[in-house]
Amino acid sequence: MKTYNNPEIESWNELIQRPVINQKELDQLVNSIIENVKIKGDIALKEYALQFDKVTLNNLVVSTEEIEKAKKLVPQELKDAIQIAYENIYIFHKSQEAAETVIETTNGVKCWRKSVAIEKIGLYIPGGSAPLFSTILMLGTPAKIAGCNEVILCTPPSKDGTINPAILYTADLVGITKVYRVGGAQAIAAMAVGTETIPQVYKVFGPGNQYVTKAKELVQQMGTAIDMLAGPSEVLIIADNTCNPEFVAADLLSQAEHGPDSQVVLLSDNEDILTKCQMAVQRQVQLLPRKEIALKALENSQSIVFNDLEECIEFSNRYAPEHVILASENTNSLINKITNAGSVFIGNYSCESAGDYASGTNHTLPTNGFAKNYSGVSLDSFVKKITFQELSKQGIENIGEAIEIMAEAEGLFAHKSAVTLRLNEIRNDKN
Amino acid sequence: MKTYNNPEIESWNELIQRPVINQKELDQLVNSIIENVKIKGDIALKEYALQFDKVTLNNLVVSTEEIEKAKKLVPQELKDAIQIAYENIYIFHKSQEAAETVIETTNGVKCWRKSVAIEKIGLYIPGGSAPLFSTILMLGTPAKIAGCNEVILCTPPSKDGTINPAILYTADLVGITKVYRVGGAQAIAAMAVGTETIPQVYKVFGPGNQYVTKAKELVQQMGTAIDMLAGPSEVLIIADNTCNPEFVAADLLSQAEHGPDSQVVLLSDNEDILTKCQMAVQRQVQLLPRKEIALKALENSQSIVFNDLEECIEFSNRYAPEHVILASENTNSLINKITNAGSVFIGNYSCESAGDYASGTNHTLPTNGFAKNYSGVSLDSFVKKITFQELSKQGIENIGEAIEIMAEAEGLFAHKSAVTLRLNEIRNDKN
């Protein structure tokens, strides 16, 4: 980790930079994948499976039999753990349901909002070394609560064409309607444009590599909504002398093991604490199976001492991290000062992995400084909020003249006339 | 208007199409504007003002004196009308504030969400024939309620360099911090990247022509959030034999007068009603100052008779209109069937212009079918929702084992270790 001691505020802009990924050259490749899926449909998907996943697929759809078989393969211990996580995620996201309150803004003018599920949702779950069933919980649970009609899932098959049982088990648990063995940019394309087998959806969710991310960016421009553009995962920890340096080190490493481009930042008002945490990191990293990845991530990471905790918070707000951990016993005065963050972990017992799996909050969060202007995934992400208004005769009488005056001032006489005709009819009826 | 009678469901996909605008060629032009603003800052803005707005600007900032002077120029009648609209918009958007409820998902595991204002907001208000002060109300009012620190406004100057007084009056009313005389794609660029004079913001709102829309699309890819990609405005009216055809015609024309590319759709279960509405349109359009624009829009518009109102609603949901008007006295059974729409106007006295100006709902709404997957602007658009979690020792004891099992199953051992260290410490303390 690079260490800085009380850096000048002029240097902060430099320190909050994330690595820049040159995605320009990806544009053409991913665009051609999308076009190809649009034209050739399932055939393109099978060709890409052979090319990228080295697997010949007969059937893109995962059958009911495969799902039933998978359910038997998942150990009971893991099923129980998933159930605990599912329940907490369900409770927290269920609490996000918005009440439909009718507001009478003026006598006779009633307005309200109604949350209506987005009808068709597509989830993408990457393959590779880790079967990210936890992300299925994070996306499938709110989709279920929202009442999305169709929730499909694409995930790349392993070389024998199978899908990890934990993925299939969790998909079934949250009520996903169909699972397809399709990965990469072509999966995003298939869900955005639809193929013979894969239905077109209105919004695509889920993490992925740079090809997947680029595909999400491109389909967004074509009109498919996306959850967010995910960059490398990040944690920023603010630790004071009441922290436990071993815990801090473990949390830093939780982030570092995600990938060599993970962002890890440690702030403190106390240089000794910083040193203790760094030493604990050096010790603990040796024990990790993903040690090489974690060490690479640590190379790009920063430890910074500031004058006081206020300044740590200020820097954190500028950095706008995906995860913030307040590693301290005295967090009360700090919590309300956080203005830019995806998710905040308070105190020495709130490790990031709690939020990653089972506390109930969502782990799909804004990275790359997007916490300044975007929220993480929540129940809101699976609904549209439609507004309604109902004006009685009294209502249009009360606000009609104001509308006429404003419409005329904006030069929109048909807008004015729509009100005038109604007001005239009401006046005539009265006479 | 093109008229269809009970079209086959196979033809619906054709009927719900919006005109396709070829934006590819815009890409290069608008990209070069953004790059130029990035490099040359204020100088670029002044050069574009000369080139596009035919005006030589000395000062981009609108001074306090100009604002004070403008406030005196706005007629009292218009000020009163704006005040009525402002109050209704304020009441409805204030009611959208989310309570911060702490949820204990498991004993000792507390989770909550907090809405935090996006710190820096930029509004764009187009110039041209109509001074859209109503849009300032729609965007500035929720920004004020949210508590956004900095809310700036860019709007193109007229040829003498001035800004319409109603724009300045309304901006002042909603507490906008600074107004700049900059228009077009260069205004969006300036707010996204910042110049010597114009501060960089985190999210840009507001309507505009195809250059402005393209600029919003491009800055979104660069990390600046945007309200939405606005296409031509749309209304879909469902009218039955309890409608007032004169009102329906006036509402269709309110939409048609917006621009030649406005989308107007009329559905009914009753052919006579359709004919009556069309005849009223022909009569009323003759009286409009913007007659030529409205006639052009009507050329591309559709009237469709369906078997029953259910089918009308089904078609409407497929079309996903920005505005839906239920022109009927019997709307109760229809309201809940609407699944895709921006804003809904219920009954014969809820004209679209009520929502455009003063009912209290927002008029910045998803067009072009985006009502399938996007909401209109609301208080939510001006905040991020940050999640928090606080686990006590009891809390991590309750869910720790589940996290360990799940982390191990995903191959993330540092995630597991962060929990194990804490559980061990708690157990050691107990012994």
Walk me through the structure.
The structure is a homodimer of 431-residue chains. By secondary structure, chain A is α/β, with parallel strands linked by helices. Chain A folds into three domains: 147 residues, Nitrogenase molybdenum iron protein domain (Rossmann fold, 3-Layer(aba) Sandwich); 192 residues, Nitrogenase molybdenum iron protein domain (Rossmann fold); 39 residues, Single alpha-helices involved in coiled-coils or other helix-helix interfaces. In chain A, 46% of the residues lie in helices and 16% in strands. Chain A contains 17 helices and 14 strands. In chain A, the strands form three sheets. Chain A has a six-stranded parallel sheet, with helices on both faces. In chain A, a hairpin with a 2-residue loop joins strand 2 and strand 3. The longest helix of chain A is centred in the first third of the chain and has 19 residues. Chain A is globular, with a radius of gyration of 26 Å. The termini of chain A are far apart. At the A-B interface, helix 5, strand 2, strand 3, helix 10 and strand 13 of A face helix 5, strand 2, strand 3, helix 10 and strand 13 of B. Strand 13 of chain A pairs parallel with strand 14 of chain B, so a sheet runs across the interface.
